[in-house]
Design the sequence.
């Protein structure tokens, strides 16, 4: 009896359908040909909010295409993409490594993969400290705070960076990510490169055990910092809300995170060498000296094949990737996810990669 | 047992003495009054150190209990006083335990009703950015996956229970009984990992299907169904079976026509409660079913959304601004509670209306 | 309660096809359960094996599998034990209150409410823990550090966010409270009326009646319920993942910012982003959890069976 009830309920639900779906009534103003089909992706959870915006925006152009994205994490996304019969594309907070590139030739054939930096986000050092509205931190100080060697806010190292501020003796609670994340990887990469003598744990996706408070996800970190007096953490700048955001020492100046400064550092960084023509993996210049650039950024990639077996699939990926890197797409992501739109120069390079997507035997 | 009672029996003998029988007893309103006094004292005490409601209650309860104990000890004697003390303690413990539970329901209600609107039920998250959107796809997914879970678990669980009660003998029965007990303790995430590995073995690591979630949940649900149906089947009096056998009815027909109909109310309740137990499971679905924004009603093709996973992701990975997603998460949590409550009510109704009339 | 020790043997030695099919499918279902359980165990072992034989530096943390899992096992046990210590006395009190103290009408209602609470999905407890309980406990942790700091459990420095081992233990306690009390209530309610009435007739106070006639009878049920609750607490995933700040190694400081994580929460947090040997290491920790819950359940069965002889249940 219970089963019948449940069945009836699910059937009646199925019958009425979701009001925002299936209509296809969106005016397809785009002159581009109408595509249809499914596009399946998986990967970085950092990209998820942006991906939602892209799914929504892309559906406006191509109402018959169903793009799904599973935020399984970067590693899982790459693994699923590279697997036999895997997903159509991946979102990943780090580019494929050499071993994965070899696997990619099995998955995608000799044409290889494209990796487009589609999601750039400044990682802000956020803090919650009553009475301190401006905070300047040098790389070594940040590293000291997060490795637990600086324990109170009136530590001489912090005072040296902030000669004018009156710092309380509150204990510092450093908050880091509990889950494995690209944000942690980029943050520790920054610490490792700029303050390697203080930060000895290397570049890690998973915070080394011991010390500090662990929180789940960007929102977890933000909530923990909000809740704890004297807490400091790192999180996407867009999510910081009304928390204090520290300025980071770049060259001789202290720079606050901003979309422009984040895009700038990526645009001026070198590509990783020895990769395919359409592999735009960048090696972020963490040690930049330019005050227009903010070096703690997360660069996330859209990864797919240059050559798909199936013409329809190739068209779908081409259309979707094209939308993602377009000005509209980047703008939508900036609005929904607070990312930094990529620079025009990078867009041109990415566009040529997208143009190269084909179907082949 | 009787040895335990003896000292008390001795203690009770003086009651025969008429002088002691009319022992003084506190009037009925005394406990409440004395307790009130204690609370007042507590309020005064906490006011002395800056008034706070929590402290008032804490001081008040402690003082009230003490005052009542001391007075009762003077007036009624040690045993009665101790009884009153325990009454206070038990009632207080009950009160203490209710505080977080009430707070929980209240918090979920308060945060959940904000988005408990029509749109939440009839739209999915496809193409939704920021405000609006709903959990239609997640509700449908939860119902479908739960239904599938029930379809897998109920026959297996019921048959296994029938085996244990009607057929089982010797070591196999003991082994199954024991391992079913162990299985009730399988952590849900382990069940999820099991289902994931099972399907990943055949279809690669990127596979996410509704049916995988149903398999994982079945691992959790089957033992619950077995345990509770076993209890219910055991309650069917043997006389009924014997009467049926005496009439020449074969054993399998006896089970189908006599044992099961007699216990149908209990079985219905057992199954419903087992469903309520798995409907809110999150961890196994997180690793097996994934999440999509659009509606997928086919459990054999691709990812589906479910309410618990939807709630988890909306809370932990909201977009910018986060508020709309967090509101959706709380509403999904509220909906889960409502779902579980509804299932409980159904179980109650089943056991009330279908219960066989027994002599008791 | 009319229980059947062994159903009477079927009347005829000759078995009909219908009987054979039915008996066969029932037995098959029973055996299927064994197969599933064996499958779960086999899968866990086979997937955990690569992590067992892997060189120590490949395991996350770089110190080998034992060093990786030990703090997690410790955290799992610690959280579950806190939950059990807090929940069991309260649950027994609730059960006693509902069965023997509350007015009958209220008792029925409360019994119903407790049943509902037992079924609330654990993720909701996690939501509540992070939104309501953790912030509410922060002042208490500060106070405890100041006044009870001499105890190793409250050594501090106190967490400023409230996301501590004690908070996780309390959330778990509140979660398993309805489960333990539901089972205790059932056995208390079944205490033989004759014993209770006899005790009262002999002049026992209500407490004496409970102590002599109800508690000895219900003890096995309470222990069984507590073990069931312990099993739940050990395996709870998302409530802990949301509430606990699990970043440190083994420590008994319950109010600090770095706590050992629990196995289940660690799997939930790390599994999505893990690949290769890391997945194997996580599954190996899952195997450890499986073994622990297995042991707890065995222990619970043993206790209940041993007590059953004395209590007069069955």
Sequence:
């Amino acid at each position: 009896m219970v089963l019948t009830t449940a069945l009836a309920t699910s059937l009646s639900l199925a019958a009425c359908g979701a009001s925002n779906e299936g209509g296809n009534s969106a005016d397809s103003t785009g002159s581009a040909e109408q595509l249809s089909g499914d596009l399946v992706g998986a990967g970085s959870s950092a990209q998820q909010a942006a991906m939602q915006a892209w799914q929504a925006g892309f559906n406006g152009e191509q109402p018959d295409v169903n793009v799904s994205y599973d935020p399984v994490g970067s590693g899982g996304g790459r693994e699923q993409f590279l697997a036999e019969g895997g997903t159509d594309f991946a979102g990943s907070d780090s580019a494929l490594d050499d071993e994965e590139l070899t696997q990619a030739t099995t998955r995608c054939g000799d044409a290889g993969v494209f990796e487009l930096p589609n999601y750039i986000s400044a990682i802000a050092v956020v803090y919650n400290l009553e009475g301190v509205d401006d905070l300047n931190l040098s790389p070594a100080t940040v590293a000291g705070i997060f490795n637990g060697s600086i324990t109170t806010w009136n530590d001489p190292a912090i005072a040296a960076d902030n000669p004018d501020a009156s710092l309380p003796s509150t204990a510092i609670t450093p908050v880091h990510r509990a889950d494995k994340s690209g944000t942690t990887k980029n943050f520790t990469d920054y610490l490792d490169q700029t303050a390697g003598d203080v930060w000895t744990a290397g570049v890690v996706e998973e915070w080394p055990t011991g010390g500090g408070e662990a929180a789940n996800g960007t929102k977890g970190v933000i909530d923990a910092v909000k809740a704890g007096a004297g807490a400091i953490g790192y999180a996407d700048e867009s999510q910081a809300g009304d928390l204090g955001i520290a300025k980071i020492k770049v060259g001789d100046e202290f720079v606050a995170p901003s979309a422009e400064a984040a895009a700038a550092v990526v645009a001026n960084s070198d590509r990783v060498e020895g990769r395919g023509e359409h592999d735009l993996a960048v090696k972020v210049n963490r040690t930049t000296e330019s005050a227009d650039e903010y070096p703690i950024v997360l660069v996330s990639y859209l990864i797919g094949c240059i050559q798909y077996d199936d013409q329809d699939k190739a068209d779908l990926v081409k259309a979707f990737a094209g939308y993602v890197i377009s000005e509209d797409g980047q703008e939508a992501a900036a609005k929904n996810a607070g990312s930094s739109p990529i620079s025009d120069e990078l867009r041109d390079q990415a566009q040529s990669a997208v143009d190269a997507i084909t179907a082949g035997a | 047992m009787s040895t335990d009672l003896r000292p008390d029996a001795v203690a009770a003998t003086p009651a025969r003495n008429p002088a002691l029988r009319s022992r003084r007893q506190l009037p009925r309103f005394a406990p409440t009054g004395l307790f009130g006094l204690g609370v007042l004292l507590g309020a005064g005490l906490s006011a002395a150190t800056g008034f706070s409601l929590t402290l008032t209650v804490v001081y008040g309860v402690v003082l009230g209990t003490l005052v009542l104990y001391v007075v009762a000890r003077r007036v009624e004697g040690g045993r009665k006083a101790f009884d009153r003390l325990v009454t206070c303690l038990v009632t207080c413990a009950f009160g203490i335990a209710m505080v977080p539970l009430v707070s929980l329901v209240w918090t979920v209600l308060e945060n959940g009703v904000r988005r408990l609107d029509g749109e939440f039920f009839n739209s999915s998250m496809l193409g939704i950015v920021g405000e609006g959107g709903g959990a239609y796809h997640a509700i449908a997914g939860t119902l479908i996956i739960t239904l599938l879970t029930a379809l897998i678990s109920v026959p297996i669980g019921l048959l296994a229970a029938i085996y244990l009660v009607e057929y089982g003998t010797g070591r196999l029965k003991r082994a199954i009984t024991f391992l079913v007990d162990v299985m009730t303790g399988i952590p849900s995430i382990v069940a999820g990992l099991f289902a994931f590995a099972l399907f990943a073995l055949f279809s690669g690591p990127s596979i996410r299907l509704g049916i995988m979630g149903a398999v994982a949940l079945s691992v959790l649900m089957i033992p619950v169904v077995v345990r509770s149906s076993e209890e219910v089947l055991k309650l069917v009096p043997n006389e009924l079976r014997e009467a049926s056998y005496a009439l020449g009815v074969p054993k399998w027909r006896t089970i189908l026509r006599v044992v099961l109909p007699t216990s149908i109310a209990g079985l219905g309740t057992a199954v419903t409660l087992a469903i309520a137990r798995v409907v809110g499971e999150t961890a196994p679905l997180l690793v097996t079913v994934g999440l999509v924004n659009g509606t997928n009603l086919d459990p054999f093709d691709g990812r589906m959304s479910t309410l618990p996973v939807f709630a988890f992701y909306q809370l932990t990975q909201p977009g910018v601004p986060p508020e709309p997603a967090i509101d959706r998460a709380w509403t999904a949590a509220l909906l889960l509670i409502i779902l579980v409550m509804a299932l409980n009510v159904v179980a109650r109704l089943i056991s009330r209306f279908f219960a066989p009339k027994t002599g008791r | 309660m009319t229980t059947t020790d062994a159903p009477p043997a079927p009347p005829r030695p000759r078995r009909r096809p219908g009987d054979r099919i039915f008996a066969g499918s029932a037995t098959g279902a029973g055996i299927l359960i064994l197969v599933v359980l064996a499958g779960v165990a086999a899968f866990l072992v086979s997937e955990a094996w690569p992590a067992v034989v892997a060189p120590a530096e490949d395991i996350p943390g770089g110190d080998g599998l034992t060093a990786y899992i030990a703090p997690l096992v410790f955290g799992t046990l610690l959280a579950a034990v806190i939950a059990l210590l807090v929940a069991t006395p309260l649950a027994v009190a609730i059960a006693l209150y509902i069965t023997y103290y509350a007015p009958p009408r209220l008792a029925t209602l409360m019994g119903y409410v407790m049943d509902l609470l037992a079924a609330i999905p654990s993720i909701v407890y996690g939501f509540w823990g992070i939104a309501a309980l953790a912030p509410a406990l922060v002042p208490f942790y500060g106070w405890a550090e100041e006044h009870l700091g001499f105890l190793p459990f409250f050594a501090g420095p106190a967490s400023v966010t409230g996301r501590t081992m004690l908070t996780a233990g309390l959330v778990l306690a509140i979660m398993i409270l309805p489960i333990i009390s539901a089972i205790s209530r059932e056995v208390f309610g079944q205490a033989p009326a004759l014993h209770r009435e006899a005790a009262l007739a002999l002049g026992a106070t209500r407490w004496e009646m409970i102590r002599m006639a109800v508690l000895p009878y219900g003890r096995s049920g309470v222990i069984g319920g507590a073990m069931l609750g312990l099993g739940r607490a050990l395996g709870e995933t998302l409530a802990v993942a949301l509430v606990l700040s699990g970043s440190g190694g083994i420590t008994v400081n319950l109010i600090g910012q770095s706590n050992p994580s629990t196995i289940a929460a660690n799997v939930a947090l790390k599994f999505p982003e893990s690949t290769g040997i890391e997945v194997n290491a996580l599954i190996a920790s899952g195997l450890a959890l499986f073994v622990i819950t297995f042991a707890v359940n065995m222990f619970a069965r043993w206790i209940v069976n041993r007590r059953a002889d004395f209590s007069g249940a069955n």
In short: Chain C touches chain B through 101 residues (CB under 8 Å). DSSP finds ten helices and no strands in chain C.
